[in-house]
Amino acid sequence: MLGLPGKNNNAAIATVFIDLINEAFIQHRLWREGRDLPTYYQWAIDFKLRLNGAIQTWLSQAGYAAGLLLKSLRDKAEQWWYFLDDPNVPPDNNLAERSLRLAVTKRKVCGGSRSMKRFEQTADLLSVIQTCRFQVRSAMSFFREAISAHSCELAMPSLIPLS
Q1: Among 50, 130, 142, 152, which residue is least crowded by beta carbons within 10 Å?
Q2: pTM score, two decimals?
Q3: What residue numbers bound the domain in which 102 lies?
């Protein structure tokens, strides 16, 4: 479905790229379920060709905002589509967004930090809490161990997983 030059083709562009993105998520899910790397890589090669072709086709017909997005998809392909080359990397950033949720909620509730030093301290504390949460560890236990180690001049506990 090609649009007309000079016309608003953003809806048609959105349809094409939503279909491509949906395909990418489906193929990544199929790879996670079956771990068939050769099939995934063959699909990824074909997908990149079709993706680049779609970007070239639609770039000159896009409105301003859609054009900026298409240029970003083209110019920053190694960031946008990294999971095509390494399927161990998820195609979304849901984990990162969930990790930030605590910090964003805290900022909204308390109105943010009044100084850069306080901001950095809060970020450090929230980072420890989230790391403990992802490691299924008690943040309170970690803080107790850290305070004890500091006061008794013992080795500090680590947040780096052993395995």
Answers
A1: 152
A2: 0.60
A3: 94-151
How far does CA 41 lie from the centroid of its chain? Answer: 21
Q: What is the pLDDT of residues 75-112, one digit of tens each?
A: 999 888 999 999 998 888 777 777 778 777 877 788 77
Residue 1 lies in a domain: no
Burial degree of 9 (CB within 10 A; 0-12, 13-18, 19+): buried
SS3 129: helix
**Can you tell me the distance from the alpha carbon of 126 to that of 133, in angstroms, rounded to the nearest whole number?**
10
* Dist. CA 101–CA 119, nearest whole Å: 16
Helices (H) and strands (E) in the chain, counts: 8, 0
Q: Which of 58, 85, 112 is the last residue of a domain?
A: 85
Among 85, 117, 140, the domain-final residue is 85
- Do 76 and 14 fall into the same domain? yes
**Max Cα separation, the chain?**
74
